[in-house]
Request: fold
Amino acid sequence: MITHDVRVHPSSDNLAREDQLAWKIAEVAADPVDVDDDVVDMVINRVIDNASVATASLVRAPIVAARAQALAHPYTPGATVFGVPAAERVSPEWAAWANGVAVRELDYHDTFLAAEYSHPGDNIPPVLAVAQHLASARSLDGAALVRGIATGYEIQVDLVRAISLHKHKIDHVAHLGPSAAAGIGTLLGLPPEVIFQAVGQALHTTTATRQSRKGEISTWKAHAPAFAGKVAVEAVDRAMRGQTSPTPIYEGEDGVIAWLLDGPEAHYRVPLPGPGEPKRGILETYTKEHSAEYQSQALIDLARRLHRERPELAGPGAVEDIVSVVIHTSHHTHYVIGSGANDPQKYDPAASRETLDHSIPYIFAVALQDGGWHHVDSYTPERAARPDTVGLWRKITTAEDPEWTRRYHSSDPDEKAFGGRVEIDLADGTRIVEEIALADAHPYGARPFGREQYVEKFRTLASGVLPDAEIDRFLDVAQRLPELRGEELAELTVVAPPELLAGASAPEGIF
Reply:
């Protein structure tokens, strides 16, 4: 890896393109390096993972609305939309939109956490949509798709490692626009000068505030990454037509860093692969076993362990016996999904699902009482309003612990951690102290996810939604991804029974 110094330059510097971060990203994207076998294997896993959570979301309101919008834009050859027959194609940017919402809705796919947060699997819908649309025109195949996805992951991981957005209340999808544009550039074999313009346009149009993840969290949380993917497709299209972007987009004196991030005195060190170096960023990312914000994953595992080992904490009278629960954890966890956010909505039984999956007090209470987590049942209004749950929930707070913050940001895999220490004080004076560093499903956790677990996750979430034959068909196609011919890329979708989708009508809009 090469570490690039990135800082703000006055216009009088006339910063050369070759010295701009967007150009360096473009050079990485344009480098035709082979994809390592273990990276190919993980790309397959994440294509399966995305399809799992999208399938489970097919009749949820945000997906129904996004799908209706996409289907109002039929196109030939076009791209597929999750749920509908593969022959029913739409314009690729609208496929990226609909499929991106489906993938993100349940907050249940992969994650990478460092200086910033991210869900790198959000890169897959826009890259796949373009691959399906241009498979014939540009002789694209499964191997080309794998290369594009590997680039999207690499660029997002590298940006997330180096540049904090949330510190300045900028939504994390500002890293997704550039990474998706870069991934599409790799897919299409575009030259650096075209990818450079697309990266700049995608960044410029995807910087937005974090209010989408604050207070009463709305359905836009699922739409925000899909919008970034849609914008990336459009940005690449414009760049291919010779249209240019604001330059330098990162380093300019009126650019993103100067006015939206650390300001004129900022200095970032961004690692990117050198020439000929494989793109391996996807191997540093991790998926979710539970449908909740990633920083809750390990704590759900701890809660279900306590449920099993200390049943007295989960029984009917436990809420009276428990005086307080304090979760000592990292800065990110405390301020984003903990009591440090100062969001009263995180303790409100009537809060939206989007809010509850960003409330570790709620999540820990339910997981402790139930001994597990379910992507639907754990969020129902009835479950959230249960009196003993509300009583326990409001006794749970978080506190930032400098050591957990340090471990969160550690580059040493033996130290890096996304968990915390839980201290439970009981009415009889007993204090129970337990801690967990990593989710069980994390690559360094107690039960790391491998192909078997990704397949099982898909089968579990698709059960009752897709026919068994469709489940088997998709898994066969996905696991042959590197060998797929261009015409087979359209099979990388799931087709639901017509009656399932017909029962989920969407209100009419403009389209």
In short: Strands lie at 2-7, 74-79, 267-272, 322-329, 396-400, 420-426, 431-436. DSSP finds 21 helices and seven strands in the chain.
